[in-house]
Write a structure and sequence with these properties.
single chain, 254 residues, Immunoglobulin-like, 6 helices
Length: 254
């Protein structure tokens, strides 16, 4: 095993440095490097090397070993197809609804909801972000394993508000009605005051009674404005806080 590992390491160095070699030596180097990487769990890189060895033609003067290596690499590619694990990514919210707009990564690789990604065996971290919320989940893949990996984004948020109560609205409406009364009765009082002054002190009792009633209505309307206005202000300032839960609109990001 040590001999194979050393040979594979030398083969990898040969491929990486681009040293001058015959066609057979190049294919052998790719094959040995692919074997080493496959044994080491680097299946994706091993797949690339086997594909390169299979696709690269042998020189006309290459010996009989070169085509055999190409055929061997083709068989190894079939083995790798069965060995390569994969993960299918799912991003859902706290209600189980898919979040298609989420930004999702496995490590530093950007993926999308529903994608199936081939990976080397090992442990990974799936991260998702949407609407300012993020979530992550670690998972592990073994050779030939095909897993569905789901991460859940909690798109709920707690909002504290102080809504205007029905009492404030009622008192405000009463204050508004009082203002209308002051305007109406006040105008009538001013108009009657002019005619009442022209006949004073011999005005008829009915005219005096109407004038006094209008003045009284104006005073009452003014009192309603003051009391209801103060009540509106106090109830508005003293309104209680209400905590509610709302959902984040991931389409708008808020």
């Amino acid at each position: 095993m040590k001999k194979l590992g050393l040979g594979a390491a030398l083969a990898t160095l040969l491929v990486a440095t681009g040293a001058r070699a015959s066609s057979t030596e190049e294919h052998r180097a790719l094959m040995l490097a692919g074997q080493f990487l496959q044994h080491d769990g680097k299946l994706l890189r091993a797949q690339e090397l086997f594909q390169e060895a299979q696709a690269q033609p042998c020189d006309a003067d290459a010996d009989a070993e070169c085509p055999e290596i190409r055929a061997y690499c083709g068989r190894k590619l079939q083995d790798l197809v069965r060995e390569l694990p994969s993960a299918r990514v799912h991003v859902v919210d706290d209600r189980g609804t898919p979040v298609a707009s989420a930004i999702t990564r496995i490590g530093s690789v950007l993926v999308h909801d529903g994608d199936t990604v081939s990976l080397d065996p090992g442990r990974y971290l799936l991260q998702a972000e949407a609407g300012g919320r993020s979530a992550s989940r670690s998972f592990e893949l073994h050779r030939s394993e095909h897993a569905d990996v789901e991460v859940t984004l909690d798109l709920r948020r707690t909002v504290t508000a102080r809504p205007v109560t029905w009492l404030t609205w009622s008192l405000g409406a009463a204050a508004g009605a009082g203002l209308l009364g002051v305007a109406g009765f006040g105008t009538a009082t001013v108009a009657q005051q002019g005619s009442f002054a022209s006949c004073s002190p011999t005005c008829a009792w009915s005219k005096r009674s109407t004038y006094e009633t209008t003045m009284y209505a104006t005073d009452v309307s003014l009192a309603v404005v003051v009391v209801a206005g103060i009540g509106t202000l106090v109830s508005f300032l003293a309104r209680p806080s209400v905590v509610r839960t709302e959902r984040i609109d991931v389409a708008r990001g808020r």
